[in-house]
C-alpha cells in the first residue's frame, strides 16, 4: 500500500515535470496527492527542499529502473525515448523530465546536487549497459553522456514546440549511432 509520504513524493515529481520546481507549491502537492495538510511538515521536516530532493530521487529511481530492465543498448534507447514520447503526448506536451526542471530552476545547492547525482547515475548505468554490449568503456561513457544530453534536449524542444518530431529525429540518429557502435565492436572481435 502506498503511504501518504510516498504519494506526496510521486505527486511532487509529476507536478515538477509539468510545472517546474518554482511553480510547484506544497499546497499543490497536498491537493494532488490527497495527503492531509499537516502531513507535509510531519513527513518532510526539511520543508520544500527535502520534498524536492526526494522527488528528484524518485524520478532518478524510475528512469534507472527503465535503464536496468533492458537487455541491450538499443532496447534501452527505445524504452527511454518511448516513455518520454508517451508522457509528452498523453500530457499534451506538459510533461518533461522533473530532473531537468530542477536542474534548470534550482536555486538550492542541495536540490541541484541531487539532480546532478541523478544524471550521473543514469550515465553510469547507460555506460555499463553499452560495455555489456561490447563497447569499450571510455567510448561507452562518452556515448552515455551524449545519449542522455541528446534525449533530454530533444524532450525540451519537443515540449516547447509541442511536436514529437525533435524527439523522433533524435531517436533515429541515436539508434543509428548505437547500432553502428555495437556493430563495430562485433567486427573488431
Automatic annotation (TrEMBL):
Keywords: DNA-binding, Transcription, Transcription regulation. Gene3D superfamilies: Tetracycline Repressor, domain 2 (1.10.357.10). The keyword Transcription regulation applies. This is TetR/AcrR family transcriptional regulator. GO terms for molecular function: DNA binding. Residues 75-173 form the Transcriptional regulator LmrA/YxaF-like C-terminal domain. It comes from Mycolicibacterium hodleri. Residues 12-54 form the HTH tetR-type domain. InterPro entries: Homeodomain-like_sf (IPR009057), HTH_TetR (IPR001647), Tet_transcr_reg_TetR-rel_C_sf (IPR036271), YxaF_TetR_C (IPR054156). Pfam families: TetR_C_13_2, TetR_N.
Amino acid at each position: 500500500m502506498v503511504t501518504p509520504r510516498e504519494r506526496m513524493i510521486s505527486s511532487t515529481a509529476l507536478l515538477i515535470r509539468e510545472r517546474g520546481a518554482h511553480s510547484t507549491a506544497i499546497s499543490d502537492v497536498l491537493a494532488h496527492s490527497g495527503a492531509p495538510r499537516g502531513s507535509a511538515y510531519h513527513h518532510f521536516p526539511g520543508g520544500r527542499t527535502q520534498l524536492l530532493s526526494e522527488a528528484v530521487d524518485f524520478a532518478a529511481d524510475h528512469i534507472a529502473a527503465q535503464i536496468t530492465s533492458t537487455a541491450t543498448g538499443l532496447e534501452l534507447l527505445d524504452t527511454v525515448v518511448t516513455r518520454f514520447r508517451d508522457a509528452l503526448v498523453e500530457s499534451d506536451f506538459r510533461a518533461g523530465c522533473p530532473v531537468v526542471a530542477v536542474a534548470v530552476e534550482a536555486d538550492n545547492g542541495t536540490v541541484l546536487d541531487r539532480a546532478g547525482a541523478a544524471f550521473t547515475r543514469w550515465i553510469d548505468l547507460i555506460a555499463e549497459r553499452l560495455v555489456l554490449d561490447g563497447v569499450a568503456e571510455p567510448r561507452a561513457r562518452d556515448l552515455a553522456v551524449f545519449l542522455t544530453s541528446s534525449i533530454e534536449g530533444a524532450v525540451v524542444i519537443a515540449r516547447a514546440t509541442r511536436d514529437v518530431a525533435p524527439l523522433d529525429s533524435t531517436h533515429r540518429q541515436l539508434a543509428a549511432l548505437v547500432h553502428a557502435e555495437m556493430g563495430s565492436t562485433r567486427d573488431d572481435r
